[in-house]
Amino acid sequence: MEMKAPRGTHDIMPEQSGAWQAVEDVIRRRCARFGFEEIRTPIFEQTNVFARGVGDTTDIVQKEMYTFDDKGGRSMTLRPENTAGVVRAFLEHRLYSGPMPVKLYYLSAPMFRYENPQSGRYRQFHQFGVEVFGAPSASCDAEVIALAWGLLKELGVEKLALHINSIGCPTCRMEYQKSLRAYFNDHLDTLCGTCHERLDRNPMRILDCKSPECKAVAENAPKMIDHICDDCKEHFQQLKTYLEVAGIPYSVDPMIVRGLDYYTRTVFEIISEDIGAQGTVCGGGRYDGLMRLMGGPELPGVGFAFGVERLLMVMEALGKLPEVDRTSDVYIASLPNDDARKKAFELCMTCRAEGIRAEIDHAARGLKAQTKYAGKSGAKFMIVIGDDELANESVRIRNMADGTEIESSMADVAKNVLSLIHA
Ligand code: ATP
Ligand code: MG
Question: E strands along 95-212, which residues?
């Protein structure tokens, strides 16, 4: 049997994980500045968390979930997104009885969707996302957008577009859905099978269908933004004002409805033109009805999710992936005898205690082989421990780039390597 990672999944190999970590560091620091704290929820939940929380007319719930019965016969699902799980945790731990708002983020959290794998679309992928609970004002929508937008700037990603829209509240949406249904009823022949089903239960889903025929019909459909009530209009106006205050350029795109059932009012996407069809790196919006829908109190929410793979793809396309130094600072070679190897081990530990990246040999190879390895591995400095060094308690620290050497007592090796590194 050929052992291969499952279709649509990827190993993140050591030559890539450094860039992931560097990006994650930037994200963590940024979240902290914005007052967000990390939450980690389970990778699987009871299926009804998503069926309810994501909505059973969505592509995710209808087609994309990894659902299985566990050995106790309970239906479980690998999380396809994280908002539903975070809301579940928020309710379970009764965070609603504490001070508001509650600002949470999750980072590089694995998500699972049974999709057609292609560039930027996988079956296991990772998301960075934030959720704010208990903040009804549009200033908070602008705050989460500013977090996302500024993050991309901080990571050196410049060529981006922010698309915003309002999909109203349940009240104004009811009226709108009537006119939408009437419109699509006139185009039944063109719509795909799935959209036929959506027509009854949630016609707005049709606007988000990926089929080119449905897309063409959707282009000319009535737009939610033209039907929102006065309160929703005011909220949307406020959002635009706050975005202007933050200096964030946006365009209103009436076609954005987002793939999830729970959105209300603000929806947005940040799109990069640098990675082709799967160019949406970040999507989010407001979901004032979700908490209630999941059995909790009436409490507004707003958030977004980034696809981390897509973020890194954009950075790579722009040549902005962080360069990560994978080489050690010092390689401590030794004669393959016990005394020399023990001394190398001891020096190595002393160096590491001082924050130096030190390596030694673990195969009792000869000095020649160790020297060759040190050169190949790109170590910046090298020390050789032979009989003379042991007898004199003194070594030479060799700069591998230019061959220069300095003398050092064994006791001072860490101190001297440190000053050479920082020279
Ligand atoms: P799309 O329209 O591309 O299918 P979506 O609306 O399903 O996206 P969301 O559920 O909003 O996406 O997820 C937020 C982000 O997660 C997306 O903007 C994207 O960057 C990323 N993402 C979603 N699905 C995948 C996937 N299968 N593989 C990789 N990244 C993904
Ligand atoms: Mg999708």
Answer: 102-112, 124-133, 160-166
Query: What local confidence, expressed as pLDDT, does residue 273 receive?
Result: 81
CA distance 44 to 64: 14
- Report the separation in Å between the CA atom of 83 and the middle of ligand 2, taken as the mean of its atom positions: 15
For the CA of 125, the nearest ligand: 1
Q: Residues enclosing ligand 1, CB less than 6 A?
A: 81, 113, 115, 120-122, 125, 127, 259, 278, 280-283, 305, 307, 309-310
Please tell me the distance from the alpha carbon of residue 31 to that of residue 86, in angstroms, as a whole number. 17
Read off φ and ψ for residue 34, nearest 5 degrees.
-90, 5
Number of helices and strands (H, E) in the chain? 15, 16
Which residue in the block uniquely carries the two structure tokens 């999709």? 115
In angstroms, rounded to a whole number, what is the distance separating the alpha carbons of residues 332 and 336?
12
Pocket test for ligand 1, best of 260, 310, 312 (most atoms within 8 A of CB): 310
Q: Which atom of ligand 1 is nearest the CA belonging to 258? A: 6
Q: What ligand has the least distance to the C-alpha of 305?
A: 1
* Structural domains present in the chain: 14-169+228-317 (3.30.930.10), 330-417 (3.40.50.800)
Q: Name the residue with higher pLDDT: 28 or 275.
A: 28
Of the candidates 403, 365, 409, 364, the residue with the CA atom closest to the CA atom of residue 381: 403
Does the pLDDT of residue 205 top 90, yes or no? no
pLDDT in tens, 119-178: 999 999 999 999 999 999 999 999 999 999 999 999 999 889 999 999 999 889 888 989
Return the ligand number nearest the Cα of 314: 1
Question: Is the pTM higher than 0.85?
Answer: yes
Cα 60 to ligand 2 centre (Å): 7
Q: Taking 90 as the threshold, does the pLDDT of residue 229 lie above it? A: yes
Cα–Cα distance measured from residue 85 to residue 208, given in angstroms and rounded to the nearest whole number: 23
Q: How confident is the model at residue 37 (pLDDT cuts 50, 70, 90)?
A: very high
82-104 residue pLDDT tens: 999 999 999 999 999 999 999 99
